[in-house]
């Protein structure tokens, strides 16, 4: 329970506002689902993302926590960092976003989905920095 609260607090503290407050609090803090309704701007390519810290004494291996609004966060803890992937699921169990993590940084494609499972967007990261964003229609 202590781990869940610490991770939830970390995720929520680093969140930002957007079109659906609770939806984006966790997702944006993880850099997984930025505000897709806004046009993609040049300045976004310079934005970077810091992966949330793993709570102290968290064992290595599969990690899962559920937020108070029902979103589920899954990842893998390795060397004290979230690694390999970060997945967020809607309360209905549908995948909301999948993001590749390497050595604790977002590095590779991140995919965002609607609650019905339709691909909504793709974001390419390199060592935590946004390289390219695409809205899928």
Poorly predicted ranges (pLDDT <50, ≥5 residues)?
Answer: 1-24, 33-45
Distance between the termini: 39 Å
The strand count comes to 7
Q: Provide mean pLDDT, rounded.
A: 75
Strand order of the largest sheet: 1-2-3-4-5-6-7
Name the shape in a single word. flat
SS content category: alpha+beta
- Write the H/E string, N to C: HHEEEEEEE
Q: Which value, in Å, is the CA radius of gyration?
A: 14 Å
Largest beta-sheet details: 7 strands, antiparallel
Helix content: 10-25%
Question: What is the tally of helical segments?
Answer: 2
Beta-strand content: 35-45%
Keywords: Signal
Biased composition (Polar residues): 42-52
Region (Disordered): 41-66
Signal peptide: 1-22
């Amino acid at each position: 329970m202590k781990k869940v609260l610490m991770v939830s607090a970390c995720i929520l503290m680093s969140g930002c506002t957007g079109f659906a407050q609770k939806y984006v609090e966790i997702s944006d803090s993880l850099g997984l689902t930025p505000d897709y309704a806004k046009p993609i701007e040049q300045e976004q390519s310079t934005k970077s993302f810091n992966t949330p810290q793993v709570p102290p004494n968290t064992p290595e291996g599969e990690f899962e926590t559920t937020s108070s609004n029902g979103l589920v966060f899954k990842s893998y803890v390795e060397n004290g960092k979230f690694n390999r992937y970060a997945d967020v699921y809607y309360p209905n169990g549908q995948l909301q976003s999948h993001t590749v993590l390497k050595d604790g940084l977002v590095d590779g494609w991140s995919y965002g989905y609607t609650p019905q499972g339709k691909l909504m967007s793709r974001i390419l990261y390199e060592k935590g920095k946004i390289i390219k964003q695409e809205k899928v229609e």
